[in-house]
Structures are given as C-alpha cells and as structure tokens.
Amino acid sequence: MTATPFHGSDLEKIEQLYGIPKEKITGFGSNVNPLGLSPRLKEYLAARLDMLSSYPDREYTGLRRAIAAYTKADAAHVLCGNGSTELISACIRALSPERALLISPSYSEYERELRLVGCIPDYFALSEGNDFRPDTGLLIRHMKETPSFRMLILCNPNNPTSGALTVSELRKLLSFCQEAGIHVMVDETYAEFAPDVDAISAIPLTKEFSCLIVLRGISKFWAAPGLRLGYAVTSDEALRGDILSRKDPWTVSSLADLAGQFLFSDHIYIEETRALISSERQRIRQALEGLAVKTYPCFANFLLCRSLKKEVSAPVLFEAAIRRGMMIRDCSDFPGLDENFFRFCFLLPEQNDRLLSCLTELLG
Length: 364
What we know:
4-stranded antiparallel beta sheet
C-alpha cells in the first residue's frame, strides 16, 4: 500500500516504485481534459513558430481582449500570468493578509502561498453531512466571529470534493465580504467543466464587487499545462496595479500568448469537451449506484467517492488500479478526509470502462 498518496503529476515516482513505464499509466488523478490539445490549435501554432523570435506584447493587449470576449469581462480588468499558480502567488503577495480563511478540504497551494507571506490561515471545515458543500450562512457567521479576516479563498468547483457554490450563494458571500473589507479570491480552474458554467461562475460578479478576484488557467479544460497560461479578472484597480508592479515582465511566453488568442474562440473544442464530460459524468455516476461506494455532488470533471467496504480502503483501491496501469487519487492526505476517500477524473469512455471494471470487482 502507498505510505503517502500520490498526486496526479507523480507519474515518474510511480514509474520508479512500481516499474510501470509512465507512458503506460492512464492518469485518472490529473484532472486534465482527455481530448488533449485541440488539433486546430496545433495547426495554428505550427504555422506560426517564427513568433518565438519576438518578445510578446508587454501589455498582452490581444490576449486580454480574447479572454474578455470569452468570459464577457472587461478587458481592462484582465491580468495574464504564467499559469494560475503565478497569479495565486501574486495576489496573495499583493494583499499579504494577516488573517485568511480557507475552505477545508481544498487545494493545498493556497496554504503554502499564505504561509510564505507570514499568514497562518484559519479553516472552515466542510461537512460530509452537507455533502461537502459550504453552508454560506455558517461561513458568514464564522467570518463575523473572527473580524480580523482580510481574505477568503474559494475553489469553485472545489478540489477534491467537486462541489460548487451557485452565483446566488456567491453574491451573498460577496455582499458580506465587501462590507467587511475582506478580499475574496475564487479559483475557477474547473468551472468550465460544470454542467452550467453561468450558474456557478463568479466572473460576472467582478463588475459588481471590487473585493473579488477570479482566477482561471488553461491546464485542465484546455489540456495545456505545459503552455503555462493563466488569467485573473478583478475590477479592483489598486489590486491590479499592485500585482502588475510586483510581477516580472513577459512571464507569459509568445507561444502561450498566441495560443490564448486562438483557443478561447475554438468553439468546436469547447462543445466537444462539454458534451464528453457531461455524458461520462452522468454515465459513471449511474454505473456506481449499485456498488458499495458513496459519491458526492459533482460539478467538475472529477468525482469524489467514499468506499463503504471496510476492507477496501482508498490505498487498496489505488494499488489495485495501478497494477492494472490506472492511477486514481487516494485522498486520505486531504484534511477532513480519511483512508476511505478517493477521487478520479473522467477520461474517454473506453478508459472509464476499464476503471469501472476495476471498481466493480472490488466494490461490487
């Protein structure tokens, strides 16, 4: 059994430990779009590689316009970065809150960046009884009881739970935070996989609430983690200026700049992705209904599950899957989750069928 759960990008470690070539491992833990790079994007970039001899536009004017058109945001409110990770770091460094509130369980990078600026975060624990969905009333009450909070960080849909807050719930939170002087960072890495993006995306709310900054990237939905392109949207002019003043120039490469100006208008790829994930999300959840497993509300391209068989823990499932060349995510290292929780993303139907066969064998 695995002593420490592996992350979706740990294929090299898996290769060394299990002797399985990483090329033969089907990664159900990475949460990346199984369609891979858009063929139209490949053709577009291949015909324009000479642009690598030129510096990108320092202001990223064309890229910000493309992002604004895609998200229906104001181009002046858009910031570009070397993946959303750079912007998470830049935002936290710019705000440098003494007290910040995180949802738990969630993505660990937020805590790391907060600690780097000397902030020891507080946590709002999600309840399994509420299917790991934040209760906005309880969350607001928690912030009222600790009036020194200056930042709230949300992942929406949340990783690893796949739950999401609706726009109306977000508006309720933001109304309180705006009045209380609390900045809210919403990470929408997985929002584009949601059944209805408009029902959960906070980007339209940036025009209404200056305390809000929304982050996205192209690693997951666009299957392009190697391009390192992310963006943020906020109407807070002072925050944008502070981030830009601290940020190194040209952190988005010419290739990523050009790719971004193309891919956000690739409507064929967008629709193909949403159709595939929607279909597989529904099919897989139905297939799991007869097994000894509990699933939770799913808005992203991955599903959080809890084994109901005492003898079949997440490490046991991980071992069984990896021996068959499939890597799922043992979630027992997330705060608030124990050894019975695991997560996997939706891939192509034939790949999903292989995993379903494995799960049926152990949890049937």
